[in-house]
Amino acid sequence: MAVIGGAETPARKAKWALLDVVVVVYALVPVLWIVSLSFKTKGTITDGNFVPREWTLDNYQEIFTTTEFVRALVNSIGIALIATLIAVVLGTMAAYAVARLDFPGKRALIGVSLLIAMFPQVSLVSPLFDIERALGLFDTWPGLILPYITFALPLAIYTLSAFFREIPWELEKAAKMDGATPAQAFLKVIAPLAAPGVFTTAILVFIFAWNDFLFAISLTSTERARTVPAALSFFTGASQFEDPTGTISAAAVVITIPIIVFVLFFQRRIVAGLTSGAVKG
Amino acid sequence: MADIVLDKVTKRYPDGALAVREVDVEIADGEFIILVGPSGCGKSTTLNMIAGLEDITSGELRIGGERMNDRAPKDRDIAMVFQSYALYPHMTVRENMAFPLRLAKLDKQTVNRKVEEAARILDLTQHLDRRPANLSGGQRQRVAMGRAIVRSPKAFLMDEPLSNLDAKLRVQMRTEVSRLQKNLGTTTVYVTHDQTEAMTLGDRVVVLRGGEVQQVGAPQFLYEHPANLFVAGFIGSPAMNFLPARVEGDRLHTELGELPLTDRVRRLLEQAEAPRDVIMGVRPEHFEDAALVEEHARAGGAVYRGQVDVLESMGSDKYAYFSLGGERASSAQLEELAADAGVTDLPSGGGQLVTRLSAASQAREGERVEVWFDPDQVQLFDPNSGRNLTYQGG
Amino acid sequence: MSIVRTPSAAEEARGRTGRKPSAGKRAERRLAWLLCAPAALVMVAVTGYPIAYSVWLSLQRYDLRFPAQREFVGLQNYVIVLSNQYWWQAFWVTVGLTVVTVAVELVLGMALAMIMHRALVGRGLVRTVTLVPYGIVTVVAAFSWRFAWSPNTGYLAETFAQGEAPLTDRFASLAIIALAEVWKTTPFMALLLMAGLALVPDELLRAAAMDGANAWQRFTKVMIPVMKPAILVALLFRTLDAFRIFDNIFVLTGGAQGTSSVSILTYNNLIRGLNLGIGATMSVLIFLAVAVIAFVFIKVFGTAAPGSDREGRR
């Protein structure tokens, strides 16, 4: 704040570089720690050293040979992808209406999604637990996909309607004047412009579904639908008396990788998506 | 290329609002015509109906003799330049300009040749592979023009194409647009709210107000013979002075003193069955510093003596502002103009007189000065209908 | 005075602001409703009905271990919960954690937002790295912290006291929970605040500097007031989110040593204890608490609910 278009003196740069280092350390230390643990051998895992003294891939080998983890990984990927797909499709439709059309009930829709965004998820666990058992949805993929879609929809609608508002819709007219049919105008002009917003929203929704823990442990009871975060808390290692630290760490690293990849590649879009929905205006 | 005919074209929105009422205009082949008026006058709606972006409620639109009412925009073979330029941000300049040609399924070579030709005309050759986001305002504007000319359409429609440019560039592009249109000889319908653009660009000008045509004519004709108060006030800058006046016999009582009515004016007033209370309009440029008017010329005119409130020196000439006592001329049409210009709440008690004097004038702020004008240049309007009582049709 | 042709202008004006439905408007509405229907249906079906059902459950004695004893008991469950010391302990733990973490996050988030907004070097790096805590699975981060503070295993375990396990001490545990929560959610707060910072025009700060404000005054007297709406929205989001704290506590302590939050307590009664009646009662109470928080933010602080400002803009 002290800098108002201040000069880029070396001292200033050094100060900022130092701050950068602080932020990087802050953000990465817990991640590096769990990565380090995942590479430690059984003998050195309790040495308390931040960097492994002996490196091994045993932990990774172990988790990929247990069905417990592999099955959970399949569940996680499948459930998160399906929930993302459905939430984005439904969210796109609703967001288009919110951004472009005038209709009574718009306020109500925005209000309801806001309510859900703020809703304490645990309040839904009790009734859903009972209802899903009655409907046979308990411990199934749809049993998790449904609440994920519900809680992802407000996020999707906000983010997408903010993106849609940014699209210069006059281009649709311009395309028609340039000789395009309505279908061509949509496919060649509007869709390419809307795609980044939809894609960003998909990433945010995916991260949300991938992250969830409360529903995952409350609405599942077996490997059938248990996702990795939930499975992690049940990890016991190969035998009951073995310390599961290494395997938990390895599993944790595996499910962290996709997030890190997303973040590295789509940093700009994720930031835009997170902020556009919440603070505009 | 083709002529465009609007035959009693009307636009009524589904909720009953009437946006355009029975517009009758015949635009000749190759003509440059301007639709001008304040915001909400229906000029853009009219343009969109010609484009096919809005349906025509009733009436008929013919382009090149063919009825176009029910054709989709793409089947009308006309190009449009938008106010925001509407460039496709995900395409390069080349792709933007090629877009209509590719949609028309022209072969690659032809597309390239046409795009490069258009780029050459508009001086865009070195920018062809850039994206719109990396272009300056003027360059974007030229790309928008390029996209329109590249397919040699029957007509160009332009919706305030220069209003997003800064003042200097706007003047430059104005000449550019004019030259381009002359060279291509393509029928052009140009929408603007800027009367200067209307005066300088068009072969003819259509003044719209509240969805209705007020007057159609060459710019100079509209300037000299406005059909009503609205046109008189809209065309010309600075705007015409309007003062309340009263006809008594062969004289006219005004804030500027008692003026003789010339025979021509008196005859016109009689024909028009004018009321006694009228509004007098006189353009700033019809005044001159009395000291600079030769003796023999002075005799035929009237002189107003007053204290200069503000004097603006423009270099080429000087604007002298006078405060007049009395009331301001009031008429609904004048209020509409004021509202459009955003000056309704300006704190001006009485009327104001603006005069344009030659640069040689010795007038100073705060000093009294005599200004001379020719009473025959005065126009008289009916305050109720706004009709020009001294209008000589053409 | 009357003039010709005024009616059309007036008509036009009325048409633009008028609210009378017409064929075109009706078609627009139909399309809008069709587009919104699936999303609205899912949201209402998965939340609306369960909420009503959960109120109904909370009025019953309903323990899955003794399904035969299911019966309507009125407000008895509420009496049981509200007179239970564990409930109140969990409630105050939740409130305490919420207040502390949100307060710390606001300060840290503001600092981080400044860095992301103004850094002369490595702005892209900082923004990218900041997203790591946001994106990482909470459970993974929680495990990282748990292992870090576990005796023998962890690099932090002996930071304060030798030979003790911090996670077996109540206050140390709560502090670690707060730390984990702050670490994970500060970036989100910072991103929201950064969007607010972007709304403060540089020119305004220059003007303040010309008016004689020093850096601190520019921050407190110009920046904060201009950013206030963004700050309030960020606080509202984070407060409601912090109130549902679950993952970190579950992994770090499992709610032992009096570190349960209301969410943990509800989960334990429901999934471990299989007592649906009590679980549902707690659910309703948490819902009410959250509603009160939201109400206070919106009515008392005047937080603009996101989306409310959108109505006017089309």
From TrEMBL, chain A:
It comes from Longimycelium tulufanense. It holds the Pfam family BPD_transp_1. Belongs to the binding-protein-dependent transport system permease family. One of its GO terms (cellular component) is plasma membrane. The keyword Transmembrane helix applies. It comes from the Bacteria. Signal peptide: none annotated. Keywords: Cell membrane, Membrane, Transmembrane, Transmembrane helix, Transport. It is found in: Cell membrane. The keyword Membrane applies. One of its GO terms (biological process) is transmembrane transport. This is Sugar ABC transporter permease. The chain crosses the membrane at residues 16-35, 77-96, 108-129, 141-164, 185-210, 248-266. Residues 73-266 form the ABC transmembrane type-1 domain. It is a multi-pass membrane protein. InterPro entries: BP-dep_ABC_trans_perm, MetI-like, MetI-like_sf.
UniProtKB/TrEMBL annotation, chain B:
GO terms for molecular function: ABC-type transporter activity; ATP binding; ATP hydrolysis activity. GO terms for cellular component: ATP-binding cassette (ABC) transporter complex, substrate-binding subunit-containing. Residues 4-235 form the ABC transporter domain. Signal peptide: none annotated. Pfam families: ABC_tran (PF00005), OB_MalK (PF17912). InterPro entries: AAA+_ATPase, ABC_transporter-like_ATP-bd, ABC_transporter-like_CS, ABC_transpr_MalK-like, ABC_transpr_MalK/UgpC-like, Mo/tungstate-bd_C_term_dom, NA-bd_OB-fold, OB_MalK-like. NCBIfam families: PRK11650.1. This is ABC transporter ATP-binding protein. It comes from Longimycelium tulufanense.
From TrEMBL, chain C:
Keywords: Membrane, Transmembrane, Transmembrane helix, Transport. The keyword Transmembrane helix applies. The chain crosses the membrane at residues 31-56, 90-113, 125-145, 174-199, 219-237, 249-267, 274-298. SUPFAM superfamilies: MetI-like. It holds the Pfam family BPD_transp_1. Residues 91-297 form the ABC transmembrane type-1 domain. One of its GO terms (biological process) is transmembrane transport. Belongs to the binding-protein-dependent transport system permease family. This is Sugar ABC transporter permease. It comes from Longimycelium tulufanense.
